[in-house]
Amino acid sequence: MTDRLTPTSDNPNSVIPVHPAIESYMRGLVSKTDHPVLLEMETLAERKRFPIINRLVGIFLEMQAKMIAAKRVFEFGSGYGYSAYWFARAVGEGGEVICADGNIENKDRARNYLTSAGLWNRVDFHIGVAQDVFTQTTRHFDICYNDVDKGEYPEVWKMARERIRPGGLYIADNVLWHGRVVAETYTDVALGWTEAIVEHNQLIFDDPEFDAYINPTRDGVIVARRKDALRDNLSSNIGFGTI
Ligand SMILES: C[S@@+](CC[C@H](N)C(=O)[O-])C[C@H]1O[C@@H](n2cnc3c(N)ncnc32)[C@H](O)[C@@H]1O
Q: What is the dotted CATH code of the domain comprising 20-242?
């Protein structure tokens, strides 16, 4: 139960990054992305109060992945496949989204939903601790996406950053944690989660190998791009002086 000092989306005193009317306006603009499977997944999330990213964040993830022509994505904390739906669309035929979640029921649900959406053949869904599943993979990823328990965020960042290709992205959801990152007083979902998110965000912004930005939509989505010496030098040579 929330108290008056708890910044959550249910609390009128909470620090909400984007005004709900603005989010609702933005949501109204994207109804063409409606798909019967998505609507079912969103209805289930509401009924079970399961924390999926929402439609706006889903579209944002798909766009990020398409912009870097991502073909290989790793998801830490896949739930029943809602965020994977967007990545699987983006990677296209021949692309792969490696999903990891601790709950077997989530895999069964994901299989049903993503099969109906025609996307299951792009998904490789593992049950277990996401960090362990990740350790068993090899090679670099175009995108590592983090949505596990928030106390584990710094650990996931540290292991994922090494395995993102130059020009690739690290993306994590909930990095504003319903405003707790700026609240003086709050009640947390679990001990230490806010502190872990604050540490995670600072580590990323301090990392000289990455450029980062937080999109405040919903609960805050951080996107950190691994610098690419070849491409980044090329664009700095072009320079503004030539305009
Ligand atoms: C916020 S939900 C993920 C929602 C999903 N990304 C989406 O938007 O559709 C977090 C999920 O990660 C799982 N989880 C949390 N920590 C985990 C970990 N360390 N390893 C594997 N699964 C984890 C939870 O059981 C839950 O299903």
A: 3.40.50.150
